[in-house]
Amino acid sequence: MNTFLLADNQDITRAGLLYVLERMGECATAVASDKAGMLDYLKRHGTAVVVLDYTLFDINDIEELLIFADRFAAVRWVLFSEDLSLDFVRRVIASSPMMSVLLKESPLSEIRECMSRATAGHRYICQRMTEMLLTAMPVEEKPILTRTETEILKDIALGMTTREIAEKRFSSFHTVNTHRKNIFRKLGVNNVHEVTKYALRAGLIDSAEYYI
């Protein structure tokens, strides 16, 4: 029997996935709320289809993810996220045939197909991401951030949460979260660790300030 390990810390997403998987029939499910829990499960069981929200889970960067893929060679991975940079997806699919990519905006039919193909050991790339990969321009341009985005970037890199930044700026959570998504998209990054590395390289924060 195939086992799906749901490595996603959003309750609504987990509930939706459990609903879909229960109707697929011959499969079991388990849940990991953080990286430590995911690794503990994989150490004990050795195999699973890991449905992972890379952008919200506590994985440092793509290098760490690929180390996990090498370490647990029998595991199949479904990267199930709201948004992933094209550079990230290109590298993932070039580095491991065990990685599938599924955006959370995908229709139910694609979600079902992806889970089914993953259990059979086949890679699946959702239609929206496939279109983005095929139409993306190969020219690299330096990202241009607005002054507000730069200020929020610095706060993110210094460890502030979206809610803390909103309170500091007297803005709504939704407004800051929109800026956050735009920053991630422009920089081609997927999580806070990658944002921090960019901020350090760009000189927006210094190492002394970061480690305080």
Give a quick set of tags describing it.
single chain; 5 strands; five-stranded parallel beta sheet; 212 residues; alpha/beta; 11 helices
Would you mind describing this structure in some detail?
The relative contact order is 0.11. With 212 residues, the protein is an alpha/beta fold. The chain has a five-stranded parallel sheet with strand order 2-1-3-4-5, with helices on both faces. The radius of gyration is 18 Å and the shape is globular. Helix 8 (162-169) packs across helix 9 (173-187). The chain starts with a strand and ends with a helix. It contains eleven helices and five strands, in the order βαβαβαβαβααααααα. 54% of the residues lie in helices and 13% in strands.
